[in-house]
């Protein structure tokens, strides 16, 4: 069975909404224009609107025809600090900011579901539409939870989705149980002692200490963790110095860890700290390890994973909607909501093939009515259970 015909009928409107969001991307916690449009459209369609939840978050509530369960659907709204290089006619007009993860489409798909459900009202119970800010490592889900999201809008189940530029339009996948990695972001600050580059004996060189430390950090996953435990430790930034003839005083190393098991994660955090302390003692400098636990492990409810696959199959076909056993080392802060309310998170494939977060990222807009239909069917079927 294809997408819901009523949604297909207004798919041009969805494309227009998505292109407008794409042209005017906003970074996490700054989604003022985006959330304003979301609130305005929801109101226009007769959905009860609550704004300012988790700063720029919006919640829409739509009552069905009679008593039933309450199902929450969540989309993210933020863009990334990337300079867009797509040359699309509706490319970002904001320098250095781009919807390179397709959150413009996620927001649009949830709006599409809300419009259809408000117009058709073929459900009992209640739909809660959660438009979340700041998914890209800035704690939008936690901010909404801290604003009592599920105390104010209790849900029996919640669902979310992410576009997947895998070149397979309409391919839906759900991984039951642990699905996406938890993630830490960290900075290691080496405070040493600079000098003239011609007189290194007068310095304690932070670049030598820092580059050694990077090599040592590479041994943590390979030597201190069981090969059967999936974990990633990537150093992604190293900053030091500004001149050819100066040994600087400081060096900062930054990176991320991705994990599925909290004991393993704690062990790796301890090893990083130990190596930092070793460098500090060995070289007689100060080494500060500043670690932030940003994302928790995303865990899909086993039963509801099957429910989501079955409902998505109504839209994309049974052979296209499947349970997968593939863990992803990417992270997603919907995980924080799934720790409070059971639910599931799926990926929906589309024709694009450039990876998420690429400055040329292309989103195939035929995904819009597909995602909106899956969301709408989740409400129609799960409120009635
Ligand atoms: Ni994303």
Question: Summary?
Answer:
This protein is of the alpha/beta class and 385 residues long.
Q: From the alpha-carbon coordinates, what is the Rg to the nearest angstrom? A: 23 Å
Low-confidence stretches: none
Instruction: List the secondary-structure elements in sequence, H or E.
Output: HHHEEEHEHHEEEEEHEEEHEEHEHEH
Helix share of residues?
25-40%
Shape, per Cα inertia axes? elongated
Secondary structure class reads alpha/beta
CATH topology of the largest domain: Aminopeptidase
Q: What small molecules accompany the polymer chains? A: nickel (II) ion
Count of separate DSSP helical elements? 11
Quantity of strands, as a count:
16
Q: What is the name of the CATH class of the largest domain?
A: Alpha Beta
Notable traits:
about 375 residues; alpha/beta; Aminopeptidase; Alpha-Beta Plaits; 2 domains; 4-stranded antiparallel sheet; 11 helices; about 35% helix; about 25% strand; binds nickel (II) ion
What is the topology?
Blueprint: H1 5-9, H2 11-23, H3 32-44, E1 48-51, E2 58-63, E3 70-76, H4 103-120, E4 126-132, H5 140-146, H6 149-152, E5 157-164, E6 172-174, E7 177-180, E8 182-191, E9 195-196, H7 206-224, E10 231-239, E11 246-247, E12 250-259, H8 262-283, E13 286-295, E14 298-300, H9 302-316, E15 321-323, H10 334-338, E16 343-349, H11 367-382
Parallel strand pairs: 3-4, 3-5, 5-16, 6-15
Antiparallel strand pairs: 1-2, 2-4, 6-16, 7-14, 8-12, 8-13, 9-11, 10-12
Bound molecules: nickel (II) ion.
């Amino acid at each position: 069975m294809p997408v819901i015909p009523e949604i297909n009928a207004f798919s041009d409107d969805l494309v227009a909404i998505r292109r407008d969001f794409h042209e005017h991307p906003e970074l996490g916690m700054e989604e003022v224009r985006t959330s304003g449009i979301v609130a305005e459209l929801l109101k226009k369609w007769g959905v009860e609107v609550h704004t300012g939840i988790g700063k720029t978050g919006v919640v829409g509530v739509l009552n069905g025809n009679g008593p039933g369960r309450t199902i929450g659907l969540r989309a993210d709204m933020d863009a990334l600090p990337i300079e867009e290089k797509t040359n699309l006619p509706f490319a970002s007009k904001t320098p250095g900011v781009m919807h390179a993860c397709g959150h413009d489409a996620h927001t649009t798909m949830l709006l599409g579901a809300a419009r259809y459900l408000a117009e058709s009202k073929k459900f009992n119970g209640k739909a809660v539409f959660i438009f979340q800010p700041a998914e890209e490592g800035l704690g939008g889900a936690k901010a909404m939870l801290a604003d009592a999201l599920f105390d104010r809008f209790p849900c029996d189940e919640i669902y979310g989705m992410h576009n997947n530029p895998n070149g397979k339009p309409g391919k839906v996948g759900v991984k039951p149980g642990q699905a996406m990695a938890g993630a830490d972001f960290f900075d290691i600050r080496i405070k040493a002692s600079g000098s003239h580059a011609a007189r290194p004996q007068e310095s304690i060189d932070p670049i030598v200490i820092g580059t050694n430390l990077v090599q040592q950090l590479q041994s943590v996953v390979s030597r201190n963790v069981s090969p059967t435990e999936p974990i990633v430790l990537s150093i992604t930034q190293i900053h030091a110095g500004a001149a050819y003839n100066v040994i600087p005083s400081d060096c900062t190393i930054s990176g991320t860890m991705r994990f599925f098991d909290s004991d393993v994660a704690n062990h790796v955090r301890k090893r990083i700290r130990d190596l930092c302390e070793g460098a500090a003692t060995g070289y007689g400098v100060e080494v500060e390890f500043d670690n932030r636990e940003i994302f928790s492990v995303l865990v899909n409810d086993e039963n509801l994973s099957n429910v989501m696959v079955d409902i998505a199959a109504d839209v994309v076909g049974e052979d296209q909607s499947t349970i997968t056993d593939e863990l992803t080392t990417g992270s997603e802060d919907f995980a924080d909501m799934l720790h409070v309310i059971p639910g599931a998170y799926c990926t929906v494939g589309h024709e694009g093939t450039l990876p998420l977060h690429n400055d040329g990222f292309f989103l195939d807009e035929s995904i819009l009515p597909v995602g909106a239909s899956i969301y709408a069917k989740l409400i129609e079927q799960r409120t009635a259970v």
